[in-house]
Queue: 2 jobs
Job 1
Amino acid sequence: MKQLWFRWVRLLETVEPAESLALCRIMAGIGLMASVSFAWHHETWRLLWLDAAEGGYRTLAELPWLIRLAGGARPGVVPPMMVLAGLCGLALLLGWRARWSAAVGLVLFNSLIRINPHDGSAYDSLLTNQLFLLAWAHSAGTWSLEARLRHGSWGPLTLVPAWPRWVMIVQLVLCYASTGMQKLGATWLPGGELSAVHYILQDPFWRRFDLDLWLPGCLWLTRLATAATWWFEVLAPLLLVALWLRATPKRPGFWRALCHRFDPRVAFAVFGILFHLGLHLLMRIGPFSWIIVSYYPALWAGSEIRGFCELLERNPKRSP
Amino acid sequence: MNANAKVIPHLRGTLVAVHLVAITAGSLPVLVDERILTPETWKDPVALQEFGRWSNGLAQIGIERSVDEVGAMLWDVASSVLRFQRTVQAPFQGYYQEAGTRQRWRMFPASVEETLRFRIDVERNGGWETIYRMGDPERPWGREHFDRDRVRAALNLYAWGLYPESYEQLVDWIAARAPGEGKVRIGFEALPAIAPGEAGRHREASDWPEQRLVRERERR
C-alpha cells in the first residue's frame, strides 16, 4: 500500500510541455466569456438573477455568500460581477495571470449561476469544473501573454505538471459515462425502438428548427444517432483503459498493440467533435458544445501538441 | 530537502485523490432525479407511458410484468440508488457547491411522446390573442427572454410541475409586463409528438388540444 502511495505521489510529479493545458485555457476563457455574454444579452440577467424586489421574477431566498456579501441580487451587484467574470475569461484567453483569473472567474461565475439554480445547465458545471482545475494548473506556460513577457516568446518550451490535464480527462469521461448511464428511457436502450433523438428533435424547448415534416423520413438517421450517442457515452470509460494501454507500451497484449497502431483518441475526438457540432446545429443548448469540446485538447500530452505544431512549421509547402 | 519539499508532493497526492473520489461519487448515475421521485410524478401519464415501454420490453425477453408492477419495481430501485448516492455524496456537498465541482450530468435521460411549448395570451376585444409561442416567429413578444437557453431551462422545470411557487412568480412577472390592458393567460400547450411510424406534418396552433399549468392574471 505504501509503495502504491509513493508511486501515485511520483506520478503526480510528472511534467510535460504546457501546450495542451494552454489550449484548454484558451477555450475555457472563450467559454466563460460566451456564458456570461449569453446571460448579458437582452438583459436576461435582470429576469433571472435579480430578486423580485429589484425587477427579477423570483424571490431569491438562498443567495451564494459572495452575492450576500456584496449586498444581494441587485442591479448594482450582478452586472459588475458579470463584467469581472467576463474579464477573467478574457485574461484566460490571453494567458495573463491565468491561475488567478481562473480562480476569480470560478468564484464569480459559480456565484452568479447559483443565484437562481432553476436556470442552470450542464455546461455551467462543466465550465466551473474546468476553471477549478485551471486554477491549479500552470496553463499560461506557453501561448500566453505571461510567456511573452517572461520569455520574450509566445510559444516557449515550458514544462508544467501534467496532473491537471489527466484530471480533465477523467472529468470528461465521467461526464459522458454518467449521462450515458442515466439514459435509461426505453427509447434510448439498445433493443428498443431507438427513437429518443426522433422525439428530442420535436421538443420546442430545445430544438433549433421545426423538423416535424422531415423527421419521420429520416428515421434511420435518428435511430443511428440515438444508438451512436448512447454507445459513445456509455463506453467513454474505455478511453481511460486505452490511454493506460498506450502509456504502458512495453507490456505485451493484443489490445495494447492495437491502441498503439490506431490511436483511439483520434476516433474519440473526431466522433465527439462531429457529435457536438451536430448537437449545436440542431439544438439550442447555449455554449454546451464549445465548453465540453474545450476539454478535448487534454487528451493529448503537451509534447504531442508541440510536436504537431513543429511538424506544421516544417511543412515543406512553406519551406523556401 | 526542506520540510515543505517533502510534504507538498504528499499533500498534492492527497488532494488530487480526494478530488477524484469526490467527482466520481458525484457522477454516480441515478435512475430518477430526486426532484421528480414523488408519488405524484409516478402517476403522471408520461411516467406511466415509460413504465408501459419497460413492461413491453421485459415481455419481449419473457418477463411478464404489468405497468403497475414495473412502476413499483422502478420506484424501489430508484429510491435505493438515490439513498446510496446521497450517502456517498454527503461529505462532499460543500465542496461541490463552493469549489464549483458539481457533477449533475442528467441530460435527456428519457424522451417523451408529448411535447410542450410555452405560450402567453392577452385578452383583446373579448377574446384571447397569443402574443408569444415558443418557436413561433409570428408570436414574438418577450422572445428575447423566453428563447434564451437559461430561461428555457427554468421553463422546462416549471413545465413538468417542479417549483410551482417560482412558476407563479414568473406568471406574475409576465402579467406585469405584457402589453394591453385586459387579462393575461400563460401556460404550456401539449400535443402528442409524431411517432416514428407516422407521416411528417406541421403541427399548427389549432393542433394543440390541451393546455397545462394555465394561469390567468388580472393586469396589475
Job 2
Amino acid sequence: MHKESKIRDPLILGKKTYHDITKDIARPVEGKANKYWWILFSLSAVLMLWGFACMAYTIGTGIGAWGLNKTVDWAWDITNFVWWIGIGHAGTLISAVLLLFRQKWRMAINRSAEAMTIFGVAQAGLFPLIHMGRPWLAYWVFPIPNQFGSLWVNFNSPLLWDVFAISTYLTVSVVFWYIGLIPDFAMIRDRMDKTISPMRKKLYTLMAFGWSGRAKHWQRFEEVSLVLAGLATPLVFSVHSIVSMDFATSVIPGWHTTIFPPYFVLGALFSGFAMVETLLIIMRKVVNMEAYITIKHIEYMNVIILFTGSLVGVAYITELFMAWYSGVEFEQYAFLNRATGPYWWAYASMMTCNVVIPQLYWIYKIRTSFVATFILSIFVNIGMWFERFVIIVTSLHRDFLPSSWTMFSPTFIDIGIFLGTIGFFFVLFLLYSRAFPVVAQAELKSILKSSGSEYKK
Amino acid sequence: MENKIIHAIFDDEQDVLSVVKDLRDQKIVVNEVYSPFPIHGLDSVLGLKETRMAITAFIYGCIGLSFGALLIYYIMISGVGKSWPMNIGGKPNFTFYHNLPSFVPIIFECTVLFAGHLMSLTYLFRNRLYPGATTSSPDPRTTDDKFLVEVIYDDNKKEVISLLKKSNVSEINEKDEV
C-alpha cells in the first residue's frame, strides 16, 4: 500500500470507514432538498428564464438589440464567452493535470470542478450561437458536404479553430466525467431499494451501465483515466490558446500580441479556480461535505490562485512594456488609453481584483480561511470578467479613425443575457448537486487509509 | 465441466491482496475479484495481463491525425480548394506544407477528438458497459465497502476453506453453479 508521511495534513477528516464515505456521498442523492436549495434554485431559474427571454428577443429582433455600434462591434457577447470558457478550465486542470502530477487532493473536488467545466463551456457556447443571429444555421460552422456552392469553412481562421477546439473540449470533458461517474452511479444503484423508489433505481441502473467492479475493469478504468488525462492536458492548453488567437491573429493594436496564448491560459486557470472555490465553499455546507472538502483543499487552490495571479500580473506588465518598447505609436496609445482613457475604471478594477487582491494569499490566515477565500474568489471572478472587457472594448472603442471614436454601453438585453447564463449555470449545477455523486467516492476510498485523519495517527 | 464456486468477502484491500496471493500459490483458481475501488498491485497478484487501452488510444490518435490532415487537404488544397481557392489574410492555399502552421490546431484537435472518444468507446465495449446492462457482481455490497473474491474449486474444497479461514475473511458463501 502507498504510504504517506504523517506530517502531511490529512485529506479526509474524522473517523470514516468505507461505508461512511458511501453514506455521505449518497445522502444528497437519496434525501430531500433543503430550503436553501429551493431558494437558490428558484432564483437561478428566474434569472435563467429572463435570460432566455432576452435571447429570444435578440433572435427575433436582431443583434441591434445589443449596445454594439460600428466602432465597438464586439463587446459583452465575446467578453462573456471568454469568461465562461476561462471558468471551464479549472475542471480539466484539476482532474487531468493534477492526476498526472499524482496530487491526491484533487479526488475530493474533481467531480464538481468537471461539472463546472461542462456547464461553463455550455454557457460559453451559447454566446457565439446567439451572435450568429440565425442559430438554426449553426451547423454551417462545420465542414459539411453541401449544396451551397463555395460555402466551405476556412481552416486558416482562428474562429474555425475555436469551433473544433471547443467542441472537442466539451465532448472529451463530458466523456472523462462520465467514465469516472460510472462506478459512483453503480454505488448509488446498489443502495437504492427497488420497493421504495423503483423509478430511481431504474434510472441509476441505466446510468451505471452495468458496472460491477471486476479487477480487469478497474485495471482498464485506471489506464483509460490516465490516457484521457494525458489527452486532456494539452487539450486544455490548446483551447484557451486558440481562444486568445481570435484576438492575437488580428491587426488591432492591443490585440496583436504574441504573449496572448500563455497569458490567456493562465488567466483561465486563475478564474477557473476562483469559481471552483466560490461553488465548493457553498456546496460543502449545503450537502455536508465538510469532512472531504477541507481547508487544506482550499489552501492548495489558493496557492495556485496566488501563483497564476502573479503570472497574470507579470503578463499585464509585459504587455505595457512591449507596447512602449515596440516604438509603434498606435500600440503605445492603445495601452495608454486603456490605463488612463475613459475606461480607466475598468482597467483599475482588473488590476486591483486580479493582481493586487490575490497577493493577500501570502498571508497564512487569509489563505486558510473559508470566509476570506470566498470573498476573494468573488473579486477574482469579477476581475477576470473585467480583464476580457478591457481587452475587447478598450482596444476597439478608439480605432484608427478619431471621428469614429465612441463608447460602449450595454442595453438591458446584453445584461439580461449575461445574467441569464449565470442563472442557467446555477440551475444546472444545483440539479447536478442533487442527482449526481458530488465527490468521486471510488477514488476517495482508495486514499482513505493513506490520507484519512483516523488512519494517520 | 461443473465448477463449484466460493465467494469470500473481505473488509480490507490488504487482506484481499494477501489471500489472492496465497490461493494462487496453492494453484487454486481465483476467478474474479469485485471491489469498490481499484486495488493497487492486484493486477500482478491476480496474473492479469497489461491492458492495451493506451495502445488503442495511440492508434485512434493516428487515425484522427490522418483524418484531420486529409479533411483540410481536400477542403483547402486539392478538392474544393482547387475549384474555390481562398486567399484570406494573406494566407493563400496553393500547397499544404506552406499552410501547415495554420492547419496544426485543427489537426491536433482531431487527433485528441478521435483518441479520446474512440478509446472510451472501446473501453465501454470491452467491459460490456452500456445503458441498460445489469451488474454481474454477486453481491451489491461490492460497490460500497466489501471486497469479494470468487474462488473455483473441484475436489479441494476443504483446502480452500481452510486457507480462507486463516485469512481475515468476514464471510464465506458457497455457491453451486454450473
